[in-house]
Design a protein that fits this description.
Elements lengths: L2 H35 L1 H35 L10 H30 L4 H29 L4
C-alpha cells in the first residue's frame, strides 16, 4: 500500500479515536455544564470546538505516525497529493465531505420541525460532522485506490 493510500486510513482512525474520546468527555460533563451555563451555550461551544479539535488531532497524530513510520521503515515519507491528480482527489473528497454534512444538516432541521428536542438536534449535528470526516477519508482512499470515476 502506498503512502497516498495509507494517509486517508490513518486519518480515518485518528478521526474515530478523537471523536469518540471527545464525545465521551462531553457525555460525562453534560449534566454539570448544562446546569451551570445552559443547554444552548453548552452545545454551541461543544460544536464550535469539535472541528478545531479534529483538525489539531489530525495534525499532531499524523506527525507522530509519520515519524514512527520513518523510524521503522528507514525511508523518508514520499510527497503525496501534490500533483493535479492529487488535487483533483482532494477536491472530490471535499465535495463529498460538504454533501454529507449538508445532508445531515437538512435531516436534522427536518427532524427539528417534527419536534425532536434540542439536545438530540445537536447530537445529530455532531454525528453529521463526524460522518462527513469519515466520508472524506473514505473518498480520498477510494479515489486514490481506484482513480477518479464519474
Amino acid at each position: 500500500m502506498t503512502t497516498q493510500e495509507k494517509r486517508p486510513i490513518v486519518f480515518l482512525i485518528i478521526d474515530i479515536i478523537t471523536f469518540l474520546s471527545y464525545y465521551s468527555i462531553l457525555s460525562n460533563v453534560y449534566n454539570d455544564k448544562v446546569m451551570s451555563i445552559g443547554e444552548l451555550p453548552f452545545w454551541g461551544a461543544s460544536i464550535l470546538s469539535l472541528v478545531p479539535i479534529l483538525i489539531i488531532s489530525r495534525i499532531v497524530l499524523y506527525l507522530v505516525y509519520s515519524i514512527a513510520s520513518s523510524v521503522f521503515t528507514q525511508k523518508a515519507e514520499e510527497k503525496f497529493l501534490t500533483d493535479e491528480f492529487g488535487q483533483l482527489i482532494k477536491l472530490k473528497a471535499t465535495r463529498n465531505f460538504n454533501n454529507t454534512f449538508m445532508l445531515g444538516f437538512i435531516i436534522t432541521m427536518g427532524l427539528l420541525v417534527l419536534g425532536i428536542s434540542i439536545d438530540i438536534m445537536f447530537k445529530l449535528l455532531f454525528f453529521s460532522i463526524f460522518a462527513a470526516f469519515i466520508v472524506q477519508s473514505l473518498s480520498e482512499f477510494y479515489y486514490t485506490r481506484k482513480g477518479i470515476l464519474r
